[in-house]
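Weekend entry, working from home. Most of the wet-lab plans are on hold until the incubator is repaired, so I used the time to fold the two sequences that have been sitting in the queue since the last round of cloning. Logging both here for the record. First:
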Amino acid sequence: MKIKYLTLLASVGFAALLGTASTANAQPVLGSAQRFAVLGGTAVTLTSSHVIGNVGSPGEVTLTTSTVDGTVYPAGDSVAVAAYADFLSAYTALGNVPCGTYLTGNLAGVVLPPGVYCVEAASTTTGGVLTLAGSSTDTWIFKIGTLGTGALTGTNFTVVMSNGETCDNNVFWWTAEAATLTDSTFIGSILAGAAITVTGGNFHGQALAKAAVTLTGADVEICGTSTPPTQYPAVKVTGGGQIPVPDPVSTGQATFGFNAQPDKKGGAKGNFNYVNHVTGLHVDGTVNYIQVIAVYPDLSAKTVLFSGTCGDTCSYTVIVEDHGEPGTSDEFGVTIIGGSGSEVTSQRVISKGNIQFHK
């Protein structure tokens, strides 16, 4: 993985795309396409689906046992045609945004601060959680297939914001080719160079495509209409062990140890220690936030996120999963920003250790 941290929104080309002069709060301008939850260039087909927001296409629009809480613009309607033209302009401009950080195709188990993230080819994620760490005024842009080809594929893939919000106004997904989501919980506006297919799951955002958009058994809600996600009670977590770095198949090692738990004032407390023995990065920090972000069918905690500070200019976010005893399949991932160095290490199986969730 090659990683480079750059100042966001530094190019003239991106400045032309922005609706505000503030780089921290800037977002791509979608024009009249902003009003659409689903917009397909050639067709839109909804089957057993529920859409909150407008639906339309310059081509055919077909609804079968589906509900749309918004306006359905029929084939060739001038509003849909104008929105599609605005989408094409936004797609081109977003494609010209320079990359800030390069990621591998698997986006599971990563905690990402605001930025422009690029995958050079296809991105395929099966299971796992991508956490966006920031506020509703920050902007995340993901570009898939920056070398010219590449599709976005997610199966049982969950995208969450660390503050619990579900609004999509500040999360954008540009794909060179298609986007396919299956049984996923997703946040953001997808601008696809080919078709978008969503089967099952919940999509908080927009599905905008050059080709057809097909929804089957899916719920799509445009920003501003969603209810907050269920907030599961925080639990105490403890653990320690080692993980391979820099990649899950590497022979290099990083060691970690932590204890994190909610406090009586509604916050969190604890300590976190991490040493990457390949790069020499050493983090020793305190815990100030903890949240259960995924549960098993019996509502017991499956995935926990905790975060904190590791100095005046250093912050970290950790995602852990407890898969029971003896701990040989427990998982750990960490993102470190600032301080003596930055690191994005995806969630991976630990060795010589154990992670425990305490009721």
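Second, folded right after the first finished:
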Amino acid sequence: MKQLTRYILLVFTACAVLLASCGKHNNEEDKTTPQTIIVYMAGVDLGQYFTYNREAIKAALNYNIQGNSRIVVFYQTSKTIASLVEYSFRDGKCQELPLTTYTLPSQMNADELGNILSDIIGRTPSISHSLIIGAHGLGWIPIGANPQSSINSSKLKNFIPLSHSELWERKGDIMTRFIGENSNPQNRFDVKDLSLALSSTGITMEYILFDACFMANVESLYDLRNNAKYIIGSPCEIMGTGFPYKDIMPLLLKNNGTSYDLEAVCEAFYNDYKDDDTYPSGAVSIIRCSQLEPLAQAMKLVNNSNQIEYKPSLIQTFEGQSKHIFFDLGDYVNKMSDDTQAKESFNEQLNRTIITTYKPDLFYSGYGTRGKYSLKTFSGLTTSAPSDLYRESYAQTAWYKATH
């Protein structure tokens, strides 16, 4: 399915959404509002880039493209205070209208995040909601996880164990959207907490766009499989400037705000970064969430099939660490299994799960050995199954439990 253009049918979709949400919100869904796009900008570390992104959104909306659809933006004005504003075309230009402020908890958790998202949704009744998350990202790896290797370090020459913070210490002055802010627990949360928070709202998002690193990751997205129809994510680091919002907002608000084109959004992201000689980027994919459960079943068959010895160093990776964490899922399956039928079934299901991918020749990593790396293979999703790090935490993921 090369072209993903969704037209929102007002009457029929309104009925479905109203039935799904009538027990959650006092106000009925607004049948005159086709969609609400929630832009959630987490933390303060990327503050200068978030400001740039908000200005780019407003510049796009200056062309009066949103129709009756709504765009609301959550962003922190400090580590403890966040604002919610709405962007609306009035008097010939995009206006920023304040809606409310939030005092953030001392530690964000599923309940607190769910309360914020429920409040935002309650303030923006519409036929559908979608979510853009601008943040640092670390895939499935939970807050405070120990990266201790499963390999006996005494057998590894010159092996020096690193803590989580040492492993992910930023190298160089280029900012990428990576790793949760240790200094800002008021707005730092795990993917599983995001899933619980979204579930508590009673709303299934049309799509979740992760403007954050490493989020085209099967362990992460499996947690979110019931929270959205589609997810957009990158397998590697996204530069600090993030997605090109001036280019993508018209694609998320096509036909006077009544439809969206996710493939065109990914193409715009890819084109914006792929030719950067210094900091190449642009790898991205669209995942169909309804196919993640069948993908787990196919992966379980592979795990139960005849496996062969393989070298993790020969599998495509997506960061510059000396001991890698993120590997290409399709490449991993094809190298670790000797069962032709199980691999064919898995690859067929993977093709049903991944709607489209964009793959540049190179990607940049600012972690481990920073620099440019070759991107030869990208199946659309990454996995940490071949990694020796975070093994205790990995065994607790829903993906691991579903596939073993």
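Plan for Monday: verify the second prediction. The chain has a mean pLDDT of 88.
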